[in-house]
Automatic annotation (TrEMBL):
This is H(+)-exporting diphosphatase. It comes from Alexandrium monilatum. Residues 178-199 are annotated as: Disordered. The keyword Signal applies. It comes from the Eukaryota. Residues 183-199 have a biased composition (Basic and acidic residues). Keywords: Signal. Residues 1-41 form the signal peptide.
Length: 414
């Protein structure tokens, strides 16, 4: 009776006198404690089988792979927002530069850069919206692999469009900003509007040689002010009254304000360039993490062509991310300080974009094998399965039982 009240009744079939109840309980507890250790000693240690200690702030399902998907989800959303903002800036530049395409030798390049930049920005927006959908979906406990493949394939197609537009955009920027022939039309240079900083990077009516001369002049502000005063004195000597000047020494702030007051478009472009550098640097780190895993010796030699394609994709995207991050820094250096139009960083940014775009194209071409190709193979298999189901449903012969006669239609649905 006491054993029954204490819950220590021996199991069914075990005689109560064979093993003392307390001894049985202690033996069971000891076996429960020691058996896992003995069983584990019989097999080699597998690190992947080790369980993570319980942490209420770190659910079991949030593995390292899930954490990488969460980080990619956040970064992809940030990049999508950044490129959409840059698209708005470039639309504004296109409106300024494409109203009269034939006005000045540099106008056509500026218009081309702006329009191709708009196309590239929307292409990148489509890319990272699709990529963020795939990455964010992969953070769920139950993942629809088919939907992830569809979104990955859509991202790869959008990358192709975006990178081709980036190549066109970079070529136009190089023509408009990098050093070139100095034999430009002097009359065109006289129409200088480089001090209107709305026409920056993708926007200028003065060719690269003319603006570079203005930049070199602007780097030495004291010399620039002295030349302006000398020109004013010459005009006054010929009967033209120059602007009234205040007596006394020129304040330092007055010199700093000579180049230009900033506009809202400039401030927005500066912010988006800084965001581009920030998010693309984070993306580069994530791509390095994937490359370390997919390009390991075990993955390359034991994973087949799929893992080799993944490695090429990761390396290409890593180089591309670093290239676009570098161009974001260069554009920020050129556009954020309140100085005269600085051409060298813009030229360097365009070259970095070309390197990044080529690397992205190579990596993206390899990724098609893991997204769109898998979808097409799966679609063909699904189509074959559907055809087989239709045959099974509509072919009466296939539905006959083992003893049925094909000439007895009344037995078809038995």
């Amino acid at each position: 009776w006491a054993q029954a009240q204490a819950g220590l009744t021996p199991p069914h079939g075990l005689h109560q006198a064979s093993v003392p109840p307390m001894s049985f309980l202690m033996s069971a507890l000891l076996a429960a404690l020691l058996l896992p250790h003995f069983a584990g000693a019989q097999a080699p240690y597998d690190p992947s089988s080790a369980q993570t200690p319980y942490d209420p702030t770190h659910p079991f399902w949030l593995s390292r792979e899930k954490q990488a998907h969460v980080a990619n989800c956040v970064v992809d959303i940030g990049i999508a927002m950044t490129v959409l903002g840059k698209a708005g800036i470039l639309i504004n530049a296109a409106a300024d530069n494409c109203d009269q395409p034939g006005d000045g030798p540099g106008k056509g390049a500026a218009c081309t850069a702006a329009v191709s930049g708009v196309i590239a920005s929307f292409g990148w927006a489509a890319t990272f919206i699709s990529a963020s959908a795939a990455e964010c979906r992969s953070t769920l406990q139950i993942v629809d692999e088919h939907a992830v493949l569809q979104e990955g394939c859509a991202a790869d197609v959008a990358v192709t469009v975006a990178t081709l537009s980036v190549l066109v955009n970079s070529g136009a920027i190089i023509k408009d900003t990098c050093p070139g022939p100095r034999g430009a039309d002097k009359n065109t240079q006289a129409k200088d509007e480089s001090f209107d900083d709305r026409r920056r990077l993708e926007a200028s009516t003065v060719d690269a040689a003319g603006r570079r001369g203005l930049e070199e002049l602007g780097n030495n502000r004291s010399l620039a002010l002295e030349k302006i005063r000398e020109a004013a004195r010459k005009l006054e000597g010929h009967g033209f009254n120059g602007p009234a000047q205040q007596k006394g020494k020129t304040k330092k702030n007055d010199v700093e304000q000579v180049p230009l007051s900033r506009t809202a478009a400039q401030n927005a472009a500066c912010a988006f360039n800084v965001a581009q550098f920030t998010f693309l640097s984070a993306r580069a780190g994530l791509m390095i993490n994937y490359a370390v895993e997919d390009c390991s010796a075990q993955a390359l030699f034991h994973g087949g062509d799929i893992n080799k394609a993944k490695c090429i994709t990761d390396v290409g995207r890593t180089i591309g991310a670093f290239g676009y991050a570098a161009s974001g820094i260069a554009f920020a250096v050129a556009g954020c300080p309140s100085v005269l139009n600085n051409l060298d960083p813009k030229c360097g940014a365009a070259i970095a974009n070309i390197v990044a775009a080529v690397a992205e194209l190579v990596g993206n071409s390899a990724d098609f094998a893991n997204t769109c190709a898998v979808l097409s193979e799966g679609g063909a298999k699904e189509k074959a399965d559907e055809e087989k189901i239709k045959e099974d449903v509509f072919d009466p012969v296939r539905r006959l039982s083992a003893g049925a006669n094909a000439t007895s239609p009344e037995r078809t649905f038995v």
